[in-house]
Amino acid sequence: MEPGLYLVGTPIGHLQDITLRALETLREASLILAEDTRETRKLLERHGLRTPMMSYHKFNEAARVEEVLNRLRGGAAIALVTDAGMPGVSDPGARVVSACREAGLAVRVVPGPSAVTSAVALAGFASGGFVFGGFLPPKPGARRRRLAELGRSDLPLVLFESPYRLLRL
């Protein structure tokens, strides 16, 4: 496996919804950076994988970046996964990708399930496009401002939201 950081798309809701390439990447990587090692362990066990893991989430990513860069400089192949979906899309990942780019280190993507495109397909939107707003700010004022910005488009709007904040939204 070529050295570098591999952004691996993971299943959204069903552990069978993973690509063969993603399984191969997770099997051959020297290390898996996992948003929640407990969740990723379920995926690995389901598919008989035993690759070592290290936690990598929004609370420790700043502290982990330099260690990841050093491992990559040493020739490691590291897979980054989130609990569901694609790292860096409303989940940890963008910081380490930017650091890798600045350091001239390889970053590859291993596509997988997408909550965004799944939602658009299920909604039956016309194929004219859509606007993806990710997660909105938690504070009401900032949330209203962001919705006003996003609402300027005539295209359908796709948002991520916590089930605990959905009614407030």
Protein topology:
Blueprint: E1 4-8, H1 20-28, E2 31-34, H2 37-46, E3 53-55, H3 61-73, E4 77-81, H4 94-103, E5 107-110, H5 115-123, E6 131-135, H6 140-150, E7 157-160
Parallel strand pairs: 1-4, 1-5, 2-3, 2-4, 6-7
Query: How would the global form be characterised?
Result: globular
Biggest sheet strand order reads 3-2-4-1-5
Q: What's the tally of helices?
A: 6
Uncertain residue ranges: none
Helix and strand run: EHEHEHEHEHEHE
Largest sheet: 5 strands, parallel
Q: What fraction strand?
A: 15-25%
Describe this structure in words.
Helix 2 (37-46) links the parallel strand 2 and strand 3 (53-55). The mean pLDDT is 93. Helix content is 37%, strand content 18%. It has 6 helices and 7 strands; from the N terminus they run βαβαβαβαβαβαβ. The longest helix has 13 residues, at 61-73. The strands form 2 sheets. Strands 3-2-4-1-5 form a 5-stranded parallel β-sheet. The chain has a two-stranded parallel sheet with strand order 6-7. It is globular and about 45 Å long. Helix 3 (61-73) packs parallel to helix 4 (94-103). The chain has helices spanning 20-28, 37-46, 61-73, 94-103, 115-123, 140-150; strands at 4-8, 31-34, 53-55, 77-81, 107-110, 131-135, 157-160. With 169 residues, it is of the alpha/beta class.
Summarize, please.
By secondary structure, the chain is an alpha/beta fold.
